[in-house]
Design a protein that fits this description.
The complex is a heterodimer of chains A (747) and B (233).
Chain A: H1 9-14, H2 19-29, H3 35-44, H4 47-50, H5 55-58, E1 68-70, E2 78-83, E3 86-94, H6 96-101, H7 103-119, E4 124-134, H8 140-160, E5 164-171, E6 180-190, E7 205-210, H9 220-223, H10 244-259, E8 263-268, H11 273-284, E9 288-292, H12 305-310, E10 316-321, H13 326-335, E11 340-347, E12 351-356, E13 359-365, H14 366-369, H15 385-389, H16 403-412, H17 420-423, E14 434-436, E15 443-446, E16 453-459, H18 462-467, H19 469-486, E17 490-499, H20 506-526, E18 530-536, E19 540-541, E20 544-545, E21 549-558, E22 575-579, H21 590-596, H22 608-623, E23 629-632, H23 637-647, E24 656-659, H24 671-676, E25 683-687, H25 692-701, E26 706-712, E27 716-721, E28 724-730, H26 731-743
Parallel strand pairs in A: 4-5, 9-12, 17-18, 24-27
Antiparallel strand pairs in A: 1-2, 2-3, 3-6, 4-6, 7-10, 7-11, 8-10, 9-11, 12-13, 14-15, 15-16, 16-21, 17-21, 19-20, 22-25, 22-26, 23-25, 24-26, 27-28
Helix pairs in contact in A: 7-8, 7-10, 8-10, 10-13, 16-26, 19-20, 19-22, 22-25
Chain B: E1 2-7, H1 14-25, E2 28-33, E3 44-47, H2 67-77, E4 81-85, H3 87-94, E5 101-103, E6 111-119, E7 135-142, E8 146-148, H4 151-159, E9 163-168, E10 187-191, E11 197-200, H5 218-232
Parallel strand pairs in B: 1-2, 1-3, 3-4, 4-11
Antiparallel strand pairs in B: 5-8, 6-7, 6-9, 9-10, 10-11
Classes of the chains: A alpha+beta (747), B alpha/beta (233).
Chain lengths: 747, 233
């Protein structure tokens, strides 16, 4: 690459900076920036690094609580206390745009990046989860994206030896051309071993560790901060190539180094590579940093300072160590056959000074790049589409003739069907702590050496948020919390990844605000503070913005292993009980979309106080060992939930007979709404008949409706209303539909 | 007795094996870094699963050149017990400590799931606590696990009773559906002719506690303990 002679406005715009932003840069510096400096500003002020459109709204999130050790935004990831001197570090991040143009590497490097965010804090990564969304599988390109993304996650995560224990996969035309790939990583550290990403101590050496720098991923942060277009394929060079083996060495070496006590601060070179890691560590440490690019290991000839500063080559870390400890540091990295090259030192002048041998190629006060980056209150307006589709009267929707067929169609739909085809490509057992494997409400990971386990899940429903972003945001949190409650865990904290369209479009920004408000309110009442997160804007395809899709990653704590609960029916003769109530709510449901082709209507209302009461009831009866199973009632409604309880324990399926007259609501609710409506705050449990009264008592105390629906028995799922058959299917048939929805029978 | 768990760059089941030996069996165990050139004071070496050298080039192809492998070969030649699990098995194949090779799974994808394997020979140091025909529930987690050997080698393996485990269904029957990766002759694990080197694709260390879904894998480690302690007496 050759440096342009002059900085023109075209060049500024090509860097994603506006004219005003450029003027601000000139004013701040009191001069024109050079080309390298322009590059540095452009990535640090990109949406991806600066959060310039989202920052003011993210302040609405509750971020403190008794379990929060490090708050959102203070470090690379939030930290939650789980007792006994242990802390959980977790974060979720998107890799949507890279995955859209190169699914395998895009997803793989997404996994690699989030893992580095966790171990830079001194935590050993113990679990990965993935929240994935694609267009319909009928389209060959979507199948290519889907299998490429799953393959990339598998290749990277499996090689790292970190189990991929959970996640979600949705298919909807809104994600056509702009798939969502959100990866969550969770680590555990001793509280006193946590490391900060700050540069301090005048003269402390700054080391470059890991892979050599190439031209890959040049300007990836700016690439992620604009819309995908039909031209985006040309951006393929902005996608990085992952080397999980190198990262595994980096992980082990860094954790080993941390144990020696020589580390002052550490940060991975992720988005915006050397630029962000140097300026952010210096900024957090209120210090400065001077580096010499001629010392940076590189794998390509003739790279200019601009390229070195902006490269997003993977598997690289910036490590600041105590002066005089170079030898110990080298010993550790030599053992793992890694570079650890001193490239500069910590200063106290507040500047990021970049040299190329004797030549000064950039000199910028670090705060200009971080705290002083522009912040915008974007214009917002309620979208017009809402007026047209919000009100759909159930009377205009024809009632299905055959409920057997409807249930079979729902179970076989890729969004609802078994995700075995996906998760069996992931090593979900390694580390021998995965006590509850993928396929349940939440994954459960035990913490060796303690009685405890943690529960993890991620949830979000773009269709809900499209129809009502506020309620949809609330539901994302509530459902995630309900999922961890169903396995016997107390919800502790969330992380999130907020996927939206172009924030300069007023309706997109309105969606964003309403979702954030919904999440904030739910987190407040359910007492699950936000420990961190990530915002991904500019998720658009040529048809417009994707459905607003906030994904919530939830951490729950199981205090004692024997509180563990699973979703499937277990014993012949157990009673089946519904906590919560059924309302006539079919708006936004999977049923309405799949059977009637409608993405419309009022989505289920969520009463947060009721939600909390249902969750408390469920947790209390699980901890009292009164229940045999618990399963959250979500997409597909009561009928799908019942079917899953019957068939999801492969090889040990259990049938059920349900008598719907147990519902007092039955007289007023239409059958399809009763079976497939997605009313919130409902959990389906099963229990020994002798425990029913006690469960009822707990529910009554919490003011939660508790209805006995039927009994676990036989090898069919039968639903009757006043002795008349509504639905009756063999488990064999249900199981086949559910298992083959995604794999089409290919093993 | 003392186990050694060899750690290659990219090994990632090393700690899982270490945990089973130390915490579940209560035996002594050390990690052995791959740059070591000597192994002394060990009764059994475990080559754990993982992606040694990123599986670049070919699984196990680079790890066989690690300094430790010469020592492992010598240890095996002197009759020491060696278990290669998954990537460890692949390294043993590349090192010619066991015959045959691995191909990609028949579905060309990584597979992680519990499978059933049948004990074909219980007269070994690794299976002396099992019954012939006993079905063990143990998980697999690999993409290159379809065992291949030519007709002649398979013949020799059979003749010398070197096939130790075969993939099977829950009842112990050999059916194509229960051969998860398409291995030749359902082979899940083999030994060398002398019977002191075992390679297997399934992960017994992941099936050594009931809370993880099976304890069957523990029989393999406990058999080793029994064999070694019996020998000392």
């Amino acid at each position: 690459m050759k440096e342009p002679e002059r900085i023109t406005l075209d060049l500024v715009r090509a860097h994603g900076l506006t004219e005003e932003e450029y003027k601000k840069i000139k004013d701040m510096l009191g001069r024109d920036p050079n080309f390298t400096e322009l590059g540095i500003f452009s990535v640090m002020w990109s949406e991806h690094c600066s959060y310039k459109s989202s920052k003011p709204l993210l302040r609405m999130f509750p971020t403190s609580g008794e379990n929060i050790l490090i708050k959102a935004g203070e470090e690379n990831a939030g930290v939650v206390d789980i007792g006994e001197g242990l802390a959980v570090v977790m974060k979720m991040e998107s890799h949507n745009h890279p995955s859209a143009v190169e699914p395998f590497q895009g997803a793989a490097t997404g996994v690699g990046g989030i893992i580095r965010d966790i171990f830079t804090m001194g935590a050993r990564p113990i679990a990965l989860l993935d929240s994935l969304r694609f267009g319909h599988l009928g389209n060959g390109h979507n199948r290519y994206l889907f299998s490429g993304v799953v393959g990339g996650i598998a290749a990277y995560g499996n090689c790292m030896g970190i189990p991929t224990v959970g996640g979600e996969v949705y298919f909807d035309e809104t994600y056509e051309g702009n798939p969502l790939v959100n990866v969550m990583c969770v680590g555990v550290a001793r509280r006193d071993n946590l490391v900060k990403a700050r540069a301090g101590g005048l003269g402390n050496p700054v080391l470059y560790v890991g892979a050599d720098t190439g031209r890959d991923g040049l300007g990836g942060a700016s690439f992620a901060s604009r819309e995908l277009t039909e031209e985006s394929d040309k951006d393929r060079p902005a996608v990085q190539i992952g080397d999980p083996f190198k990262e595994k060495l980096l992980l082990e070496a860094c954790l080993e180094l941390l144990n020696t006590g020589v580390v002052v601060g550490m940060q991975d070179m992720g988005a915006a590579g050397l630029t962000s890691s140097t300026s952010e560590t210096a900024s957090r440490g209120n210090s400065g940093m001077r580096i010499d690019l001629s010392l940076v290991p590189r794998r390509e000839e003739g790279m200019i300072p601009y390229e070195l500063m902006l490269s997003e080559s993977q598997e690289r870390m910036l490590v600041i160590i105590k002066r005089g400890k170079e030898r110990e540091t080298r010993r550790v990295f030599d053992k793992w056959d890694l570079h650890a090259v001193p490239i500069g030192e910590v200063t106290d002048d507040g500047y990021l000074t970049v040299l190329d041998k004797d030549r000064r190629v950039a000199e910028i006060p670090v705060k200009f790049l971080t705290e002083d980056a522009p912040v915008y209150m974007r214009e917002e307006r309620e979208p017009e589409y809402l007026g047209k589709i919000k009100d759909v009267s159930i009377s205009t929707i024809p009632e299905p003739q055959d409920y057997d067929d409807v249930l079979k169609i729902l179970l076989a739909s890729p969004t609802i069907s078994s995700k075995r085809w996906v998760y069996e490509q992931y090593d979900y057992m390694i580390r021998t702590d995965t006590v509850l494997r993928p396929g349940g409400d939440a994954a459960v990971i035990r913490i060796k050496g303690t009685e405890k386990a943690i529960a993890l899940t991620c949830d979000g429903n773009g269709r809900y948020c499209f129809l009502d972003p506020y309620e949809g945001g609330k539901i994302a949190v509530a459902e995630a919390a309900r999922n961890v409650v169903c396995v016997g865990a107390k919800p502790l904290a969330i992380t999130n990844c907020l996927n939206f369209g172009n924030p300069t479009k007023p309706y997109v920004f309105w969606q964003f605000r309403r979702c954030v408000e919904g999440i904030a309110d739910a987190c407040g009442i359910l007492e699950t503070p936000v420990s961190g997160g990530n915002v991904s804007f500019y998720n658009e395809n040529p048809k417009g913005a994707i459905d607003p899709t906030p994904v919530v990653g939830m951490l729950g704590l199981i205090e004692k292993m024997d509180f563990l609960c699973t979703p499937w029916f277990k014993k012949e003769g157990d009673l089946i009980i519904l906590l919560g109530e059924c309302r006539e709510e079919i708006g936004g449901s999977e049923y309405l979309q799949l059977i009637h082709g409608l993405k419309a209507g009022q989505i289920p209302r969520l009463d947060l106080e009721r939600e909390r009461a249902v969750q408390n009831t469920c947790l209390e009866v699980i901890r009292a060992h009164l229940v045999s199973s618990a399963h959250d009632c979500s997409e597909g409604g009561l009928a799908v939930t019942l079917a899953e309880c019957c068939i999801s324990n492969s090889g040990k399926e259990r049938g059920a007979i349900i008598e719907l007259e147990a519902f007092p609501e039955i007289l007023s609710i239409r059958m399809d709404a009763l079976l497939f409506g997605e009313t919130q705050s409902r959990i389906l449990i099963s229990c020994h008949p002798r425990n029913f009264l006690q469960i009822q008592r707990v529910a009554r105390r919490n003011k939660v409706p508790c209805a006995r629906l039927g009994v676990v028995t036989g090898d069919r799922l039968t639903i009757r209303r006043i002795k008349k058959r509504v639905l009756d299917l063999s488990l064999k048939e249900l199981g086949e539909k559910w298992r083959k929805g995604l794999s089409h029978g290919d093993d | 007795m003392r186990f050694g768990v060899v750690v290659f760059p990219g090994s990632n089941c090393d700690y899982d094996c270490y945990y089973v030996v130390r915490d579940l069996l209560g035996e002594e165990v050390d990690f052995i870094w791959h740059k070591e050139r000597r192994v002394e004071g060990f009764d059994c070496l475990i080559l754990p699963g993982g992606f040694s050298y990123g599986d670049y080039l070919r699984t196990g192809a680079i790890a066989r050149f690690s300094p430790i492998m010469r020592a492992v070969s010598g240890f095996a030649a002197r009759g020491g017990l060696v278990i290669g699990i998954c990537n460890g098995f692949q390294i043993l194949l590349e090192s010619n400590l066991l015959p045959g090779a691995m191909m990609k799974n028949k579905n060309l994808r990584f597979i992680c799931r519990f499978v059933n394997i049948r004990v074909e020979n219980n007269l070994t140091s690794f299976t002396n606590l099992c019954q012939i025909g006993q079905v063990l529930k143990v998980p697999i987690a690999h993409i290159d696990g379809s065992y291949y050997a030519d007709h002649e080698i398979i013949g020799t393996l059979k003749e010398n009773n070197q096939i130790i485990f075969r993939y099977c269904n829950e009842e112990g029957g050999l059916a194509q559906e229960s051969n998860p990766n398409g291995s030749k002759d359902f082979i899940a694990g083999i030994s060398n002719r002398q019977g002191n080197v075992l390679g297997l694709m399934p992960h017994p260390e992941r099936a050594s506690e009931s809370i993880l879904g099976s304890e069957d894998g523990r029989l393999i480690f406990e058999s080793v303990v029994r064999a070694v302690k019996g020998r000392v007496k």
